[in-house]
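Why do we care about 3D structure at all? Because function follows from shape, and shape follows, mostly, from sequence. That is the central idea of this module. The next example makes it concrete: a single protein chain, its amino acid sequence, and then its structure expressed as tokens.
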Amino acid sequence: MHLFSRRELADSAGFAFVERRAVRFQDIDAAGIVFHVRMLEYFHDAYLSFLSASGSPLHESLKQGLWAAPLRHVEADYFKPLRFGDAIDVALVAAHVQATEVTIGYRVKRAEGEEVIAVGQTVHVFVDAKTFRRTDIPDLLRSAFLKLGHPSQVTPGRDASRGSASGCQLGAEVLE
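And the structure:
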């Protein structure tokens, strides 16, 4: 199982699939910030939008019984709080593609500016929907995942005005 580092996800400068959203009232906990598991929902919602935009809507695949891609691993690292009404961009920024498995990297930024709020990743295993045995990732999806690229395959751009790769504002101490 491949996992990306926090730095790779925060600084990834390759192609990204981005979904803009606002933090909803029901996403907030008693402390007035986003409840931690909501970030995983944000990742999943962006993943579903990515599948649809790639021509493979999950609901159609499940209805037809072609394939499923259950989670093997999921994680998130939180750097800054989010509050009700905040506008954010949830992006799929990286993919490590194997024959039957894909690791997808996510980055959440404030919609205005470059402040990284969180990063995370999911590992999906593709299985035959009827037998639940591993199966190759469908070609259409494999191509879409490969377009996301792998952080080791792209050279992050430098933004001299901020002094960080890709212009992301994030303290090095939280990435180590």
